[in-house]
Amino acid sequence: MEVRTGTITQPTLIFSEVSDKSSVYLGDAYEVLSNLPSQVCQTAVTSPPYWGLRDYELPGQIGSEEKVDDYVRSLVLVFRELRRVLKDDGTFWLNLGDCYTSGGRTWRAPDKKNPARAMSYRPPTPDGLKPKDLVGVPWRVAMALQADGWYLRSEIIWHKPNPHPESVKDRPSRAHETIFLMSKSEKYLYDYEAIREKGVNGKRRNKRSVWTIQTEPLNDAHFATFPTKLIEPCILAGSRVGDSVIDPFFGSGTTGLVAALHGRNFIGVEMKPEYVKIAKKRLGEYGFTFSVVKVDREGE
Q1: Per-residue pLDDT tens for 70-96?
Q2: Which end of the chain is more exposed for a tag (fewer CB within 10 A), N or C?
Q3: What pTM, to 2 d.p., does this model score?
Q4: How far is it, in rounded angstroms, from Cα 134 to Cα 48?
Q5: How far apart are CA 30 and CA 81, in angstroms?
Q6: β-strand 41-46 against 244-247: which pairing, if any?
Q7: Dihedrals φ, ψ of 34, to 5°?
Q8: pLDDT digit string, tens, across residues 238-249
């Protein structure tokens, strides 16, 4: 295998070691993770593409599967490799949103405010579900990951005071998403003192499982971004200063930014070069930088 600064060419994609400085791999999440060394990261924080929501214009992209079961299987495979990359006392914080069945429609109305938001089609209604059913995607993924070996430790509700508006009149408007805390082992690093919160009596208490955090727009991005305050407790509880944090769906780099702000190193994986450029600019505004490693597949 030939290795050059900023570039990895393969016939065989293998990273024999990971730098102690922050880096982002420009490539496919599964391919990169499956070739990273074992036990190099302390915690993982990520939000993969949601099923059937957005077209990233990438062949074989996660989220574009016609069947929700295939989407779940894709994530199980990616996160199986993520588990290997985590240290034995590592944790995994997973943010996922839900959706409703299409009711037989195979098209989506365009989103005039954010044309990059939606795919041009709707996946068919999953087997066993009815039109207008809530699919339950987060819990389908969580139960599959639990069956694959992860310890499912907590369901956290991210309550959004400023949710995306919905025009529905036959159910409550959605104002939350789900975050799952998972661990690789029965015993794991969880610094509860670092994220204690103030109770109604003014005294500090253990952090509760409903987090009220506003969404944060990012001018350079035409897609959803993590709020920094959503990521902060995950990184503070799941790692120590000097540890490495990993996000296999790096996007605009919020996980990396929060990790750097709190003295952690980070590893990101992202397929779209334009998103890496956004992250580079964003972190640079805070005085942080990272190396970009382009992963070339054989024949490309």
Answers
A1: 999 999 999 999 999 999 999 999 999
A2: C
A3: 0.86
A4: 19
A5: 7
A6: parallel
A7: -70, -10
A8: 999 999 999 999
